[in-house]
Amino acid sequence: MPYMKDSTGKRLDSFEVAEGNPSNIATRIIGGRMGTIDASTAKTFQLSLEVADHFDAVRIIFASTDRTNSHAMLATAASVVGASADLNNSAGTWVAGGRQGSTQVYSELAPSAADRIAYTLSDWIAISSVARTDAGTKPLLIVRAYMNASATLPVYGNGTDDFTNWATRTDGRLHAMRYQDGDHATTATGFTSTTNRSQSPIVGVQYLARGKVITVAGVGDSITEGQGTYLGQGFILPAVDALSDTDVKYEYMNCGWSGQAMSTFAERAIDIMESEIRPDVIVFPAGSPNDTPTTITAADITAARARRARITAAAKRNGVVPVIWTVLPTNTAVRPYGATDSLRVAYNAEVLAQANRNLIVVDTATAVSGATSGGQVQMTGTTDGIHPNDAGNTTLKPIVQAGIKEAGRRQESAGKSGDNRSSVPVFATTETALQISKAGVWVYRAGGSGIWTLPPVSGGTRQDSQVIVVKVRESAGAVQIVRSGSDAINHAGAAGSSVTARPGQTLTFIPSGPASWDVLGTHAMEITIPKRDGGATLTLDRSAPLVVYTGAGATTWTLPSSRYSGQKYVVKNCGGGDITLNRGGSDTIYTTAQVTSITIVPGGSAELIHDGTNWVVL
Fold first, then answer.
1. What's the pTM value of the predicted model, to 2 decimals?
2. CATH of domain 426-522
3. 313, pLDDT greater than 50
4. Regarding the domain with residue range 23-411, which homologous superfamily does it belong to in the CATH classification?
């Protein structure tokens, strides 16, 4: 078979660990399958959870699959508690969070393909765990976020899966999701709900542990996600927990997504390894039954091989150790592979052979392989014929544990590097008043005018370089960008307190010294392709600043009611009748005096520019 190679000619089915990178930065994510919730009434969402080690600072992790709109965490906060009897701790001490000096945290836009996730983190919140006062052994942490109102707020949980039994666990892996209308992150005492939920935009935390921690991420389909008594546990979390000892703790990121094919979760695996939540170890299957619903073909095996190589290459590139597990059998009643199942068996043998090339491969398939029927190996330790049940998970746990242990051994020699962002984060919103909370590209989409506030140039806690780009869509209104505090905004040869970005314009803000921003700008195009119209009526919009009338008779046109200072139109009458050009809304048009309309005769033209008060006819 041909082997995939990187740009240096090295085979991508081999793996050499360039440098281990565990540290005291650990990440816990409770699950990966996303959905939406109707939060038309703004709510405070709360996640209470146990983590693997004691800590002195935390970051709250939000997940979004929205590719169009950035959602706002308007206020965030964290608290610690010594017992699980009160998972709200509303009367306790809470520490506020935020991003770059702002209380608001905006979610990054998800990658362009469907069912991929953008993870956004708050700044570090200085809060220390406390000793347990009950029978529990792991530290308890509670985090909250007051979210913007949205009818389709992205959340963990599809609305059908039930995760509420996690709230009563006593084995150290408790987590409870709750929410309540209103802002209870700014003022904690009002949160009284004790109803455990199965959906939340908060998916986990990153924490600064007091000891060394190895973070393990599981990426894949519903088998990775985990089925059984506790939906979302599976065999990887128990394997991770069994490895923790007094010297090194292990933490788990569950990034399995039920129903996903490898064609999607392979890309999610790469997204995760190139993000702020990059793990130390990544565990994933060599293939998925979601890619082969009826029969298995040679093309299916070729595709799985290529996707496995992409994940492995990304792991090598980012200093993450991969652990690959062989593709489990499925029962004929669920996947009627018949004799084509032999391709899966042969592919597993090929994957196992990669252990000779320094890859860590664990043979999960053999452990749950039963009798062969009609050429197809049947699964044991299953209830539904495709997912391991509690007994099957128990069988697979020590096999995966051995692979993770070896991966951890390879990672125990060095410290984790900083954030490894492969791309600039992008935010898009219709919010007319917000505090820019993170470096990146911010797209203004609202039809009316807005006011956005820059973060302070210095004095705030930051994890990233502070270059901010503001883009205003051509169909949007103007947005005024104002400073924080006494920072200066250097634009057009002068230092000021604000600058306005107009439709079609892009402004780039770069720190210049300890208390000022330099602004680089591109201007909106003046006149581009003209708009031609021959109808009886027309309301002008921002699609073109030059509008030409081509009709035979008279027509009535109306200026837009939503406008900004400096907006310009040129109207040319190439038709056979007069154009009556009316004001929009309560605006006025100024010729030699304020009027509500003007007439443009055939062959004539008018140039109008808005001065902030009137449409001035030049």
1. 0.79
2. 2.60.120
3. yes
4. SGNH hydrolase (3.40.50.1110)
